[in-house]
Amino acid sequence: MVFRKADFKGSWYSGSRKELLEALERYFNDKSFGPGETPKSLGLESRTIIGGVSPHAGHQYSGSCAAFTYLNLFKEKIPDTIIILGTDHKGYRNIALFEEGEWETPLGNLMVDNELSNEILGNSKTIISDNSAFLIGEWNIEIQLPFIKYCAGENDVKILPIKIKRNAKIQELDELSNNIANSIKDLGKDIVIVASSDMSHYNVFNEEQIKTLKEIDQAVIEQFLNFNAENILNPENFINREMYNKFGLEERGPSICGRQTIATLILIGIKLNTTKARLLKYYTSKDISPGGHPWTVGYFSGIVVK
């Protein structure tokens, strides 16, 4: 069985159990950037919220935004399994899942749902089993795990990490979403999906640039709300080039790092008969920390609902 260490504890998020619990409590109770309440499950028999988008920056920046997503995913009932759709920052060229193993967190380890992974692999020609893809120094899935463990409490919630290559085409994502949706239907478990993605990344030196960054993000969020997966994956198709040209020469293009994960979530939602999407929270790193380095990132929490 493959064991994945918590490589980013103590850097991207608090490394000790005590400090991490205190930090997570702050993010949930944050009334300015967070939901202002701690997670509580209603224990309902059925579920309407089937997935959400959660950012993956360092918790001190994106944690309050992510808290909105997990508060809602656990609100109706505690899921059996959470599929985490992760992006790639290292040049990985496939779409792969973590077939079997466990992933360390300071709050206790999370087991991979081997039954679900086998079901998806049996349904799919698009996705491969490659545990090694998750052992590369990649934070965007790991950053989600403390929220899952915190919200699950003593309940046995499993995970299924899936890594999606950056250059995936809409046809590949459509097939992947079909495989995942069919597997969810066939197994009959309570399974929810998290799309791990930050929004735009640009160096921002003036008010016009921060305004443009937010306008680009809001335009993509609007596509999320309208269930337009292809526009999410390819925002250059509908966003005016002049908006991108307001940034540095090397930055003049889409920079939302998990577009393929958000698009896949929307496609899964369509196949699971979801009818609406909701924006829960949006802010930027400049809102959290106005001074300092010009590098600025947008954070977005949203859910898809039956």
Give the SSE layout:
Elements: E1 2-4, H1 17-29, E2 49-54, H2 59-73, E3 81-86, E4 95-97, E5 101-103, E6 110-111, H3 114-123, E7 128-129, H4 145-152, E8 158-164, H5 170-187, E9 191-196, E10 201-203, H6 207-225, H7 229-233, H8 241-244, H9 259-271, E11 276-284, H10 285-288, E12 295-305
Parallel strand pairs: 1-5, 2-9, 3-8, 3-9, 4-7
Antiparallel strand pairs: 2-12, 4-8, 5-6, 10-12, 11-12
Helix pairs in contact: 1-2, 3-5, 5-9
What does this structure look like?
There is one protein chain. The protein contains ten helices and twelve strands. It is an alpha/beta fold. It has one domain (2-305): LigB-like (Protocatechuate 4,5-dioxygenase, Chain B). Strands 2, 3, 4, 7, 8, 9, 10, 11 and 12 form a nine-stranded mixed beta sheet that branches. The chain has a three-stranded mixed beta sheet with strand order 1-5-6, with no helix packed on it. The relative contact order is 0.19. The model has no long low-confidence stretch (mean pLDDT 96).
